[in-house]
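Researcher: Go.
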Amino acid sequence: MSLATGVGSMPGDDARAYAEAVRLSVGELPDLAFVPELPGRGVTANMTGRALAIVDGLGVDLQPAGWRLTDASGIDHRRARSLLAQDLDQVEEQAQDYAGAFKAQVAGPWTLAATVEKPRGDKVLSDHGARRELAQSLAEGLRGHVADLRRRLPSVERLIVQVDEPMLPAVLGGGVPTASGFGRHRTVHPPEASAALEVVLGAIADAGAEPWVHSCAPGVPWALVAGAGARGLSVDHAMLETSDLDVLAQALDDGLVVALGVVASTDPSAVPSDAVLTERVLRWLDMLGLDPAEVSDRLVITPSCGLAGASPEWARRALSLSRHVAGHLDVR
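Model: Structure:
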């Protein structure tokens, strides 16, 4: 059975909007709901702030240039943790009887290394030891996070943690700017990139959850991601390159999940029907040489990326369309 879910972010900038996002997730996605993220609420709720609320053993504070590692947690770090706890309270309350699969999201080690600064400035990415320590702290924090989700959602048997890595291609390609903006950080070589991912994905699996990796950036090395231990690959259909086809076909053959983003993540000028989107998925599967009936249990339909930039109306419609497309695939 093909499932549908959201990537993670949703529109809105206050507690009321968050409560509505949870209701939408649980109501529109009865088989694979997700913990919404509302980055419109500010830096404590964006992708980086959310992940730093999970890391264990590191102090962080918010500086004018962004998040920075410190000796002790600053007030904004404590606010990020408090906000995450409040959000999970809301999820727990509204999903008390939810029995489908459930997904949470967190920024990955390389996206964090490219966005968080060292104590004396410049990105964590510039220091081998600092980026290794950040990945280990994220892994340890995720063990506790998964345990907390298990406690809050006792009826959920299949728990998924999606690791978001939008910066991974830039990290591997030497495209992350230095603090001055005049240079670029050195390329991280694939073996080291894979090792950090293995630490984080392995911690998720050890804690009893299913590790996925998502990125809607171009040039993602999906073979590296799969080799690092991801059990699901969440991709933007429009960003895929010809070279990705064999990798994703092999992933599906190997029993991995592919979450295919085919629904627009922002309000489109012309709304496609679910029939048109279904045909798009079927053409893609045909290019991979796969029978929809044989891979339907490993194929998930999603919006192309997060929905933070969409109107509330389109966010609802995008999740509904994803669910309908998944349903059409099951009857083929």
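Model: The mean pLDDT is 95.
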